[in-house]
Amino acid sequence: MHPDREETVGNGEAEEMDEGLKEDTSLGDIPLYRPRFSGMVRQKAYIFDGKGKYYNKDWDFAEPKENEFCWYHVELPKINQKLPLFAQCLIDILCPPLKLQDILSLVSNGPLCSHVDGALVFRVNSSGPPTSNYTFRLAARVTENSVITVSLGRVPRLGFSPMSESLLSQIPAVETCSIGGTPSHHGGDGNEGSGIVIREHVLEFLLTMNHSEEADNPVPESVSNLVVHIIDTHLDHLQDITTKFEMELDSVELELDKGGFALKKQMLDDRRFPKMHLNLQRILQVIAHGEQVFPRVKEKCSSKKWFSSEDINSLEELIGRLRRLKENVGFISNRVTAIQAGLDSWQAEQINKKLYYLSFLSIIFLPLSIITGVFGMNVGGVPWTEQKNPEVKAGFRNVMFVCVGVLVLVLLCFLFPALYSRIAAWRRTIALKRSWSLNRRSYLKRTLPVKERDSYIRL
C-alpha cells in the first residue's frame, strides 16, 4: 500500500494488515514508516521560461531546458505533530533526488545558511507549536536552475496564479450587516453598476496589508528573482501578522478603557496579556533568525554568477525592512508590558483595599482583645473584679468605656493624616484665592485710563 493512498482503519483491520504483511511480504518490502498526514501535504511545482511566463509542472524533478528554471514548494499541515513525522513526510516526497542530509537541513529548527551538497540552503524555522499562528517555518534549497521550498501551512501570496482586475482599481461599495442581519450596500449600486462590493472580512484583510496588491505576485525571470520573491513574501507575511496583532491590541485597549471590574478580572484570569507577550516573543524569534540568515544569504549569493546585482540590492532593502519590523515589534511588546503592569497595579490596589477593610475590622476588635487579654490574666489585684473592693460592681461598664476610649484614640490616629491633608489643601486654596484677588486689583490699577490734570500727565 502506498503511503499517499493510505486510509484510516480500525484496530482490527490494522492487526489483519500486519499479519498479512508478516505472511505475504518480505522484510525488504515492508514500509519502515507510514505518514499519518500524507494526504494533507500540498505540493506545487512550476516551471518558468525566463521571459515572464510560468506553467504548472509535474512533480518529477526533471532537469529544465536552457534558460528555464523550476520551483518545487511543499506546504506542511499545521497540526500538532512531532518534528520526525514532518521529516518522514518530506523523505517520502523529496527523496529522491534529495539526500537525507538535504531533507534534514530543510526541516530542522533554528536558523541556517550554508552550502549542503553543492546547493545553497537557508531556513528560518521557529520551534513553537505548529498549530500557532505565530509559528513560522520557511526553508529553501537554491541551485542554478531549481528552487525547493518548504513552509508550515500556507504562506499568503507565495505562489502564483493568474490575476484578474485588481480589487483596488475601482471605487468599491462596502458590504455591512443591518440590524435585521441582512447584508446591505453603501455607496450606490455596487452590484448593478461598474463598481464592486468588498465584503467586511476582505476589507479587514486589506487593512493589514502594508504593500501594494498589484505587486504581490510578479512572475520572476530568473532564480535570483524567485529567491527575492520568496524572502519578500515571508517578510510580507510577518508584517501582516504584526499589523493584525497591533489592531487586536488596539481593540483590547479600547475594551479595557471602557470595561470595569469584571472585564479586568476576566483578562487577568485568562492571562490575556502574558499570552500576547509570548506570541510577540515568537515573532521576535523568527525576526532574529532572519537577521542572522538573510545577510549571509546576500553574502553567499553575491559570489554567484547567476545572481544579479539588482537582486542583491533588493536583498539589502529587505534586510533593512526586517530591522525596522523588529523595532516595531519591540514597541508593541513594550505596549503589552505597560498594559500588563497597569493591570497588575490595579490588582494590587484591589488587594490593598480588601486588606485595608480587613485591618479596619481588626482595629474595631483590637481594644476588646487587649482588655480581654489583660482581664483574663490569672493573677490577683485586677481592678473592677471585686477582689479588693466587693462593693464595686460597675466593672463591665468601665471596661466598655475603656474600649471606646482606646477605639477613638486609634481612629484619631488613622484619621489625623486625612484631616491634616484636607486642612492643608483648604489653606492652600485660600492663599491662592487671596493672591489671585491681589493680582487682579493690581492689574486693574495698571489698566485704568490715565487722568490728565492741568495738561500734566500723572505718573
CATH superfamily of the largest domain: CorA soluble domain-like
Number of strands: 12
Could you tell me the mean pLDDT?
75
Spans of at least 5 consecutive residues with low confidence: 1-35, 185-194
Instruction: Summarize the amount of helix as a percent range.
Output: 40-55%
Q: Report the biggest beta sheet as strand number plus sense, adding barrel if it closes.
A: 7 strands, mixed
Give the gist of this structure:
This protein has 10 helices and 12 strands.
Topology summary:
Blueprint: H1 11-24, E1 42-48, E2 54-56, E3 69-76, H2 83-94, H3 100-107, E4 110-116, E5 119-125, E6 138-142, E7 146-152, E8 173-177, E9 183-186, E10 197-198, H4 200-207, H5 223-258, H6 261-270, H7 272-301, H8 309-364, H9 366-375, H10 395-447, E11 452-453, E12 456-457
Parallel strand pairs: 3-7, 8-10
Antiparallel strand pairs: 1-2, 1-3, 4-5, 5-6, 6-7, 8-9, 11-12
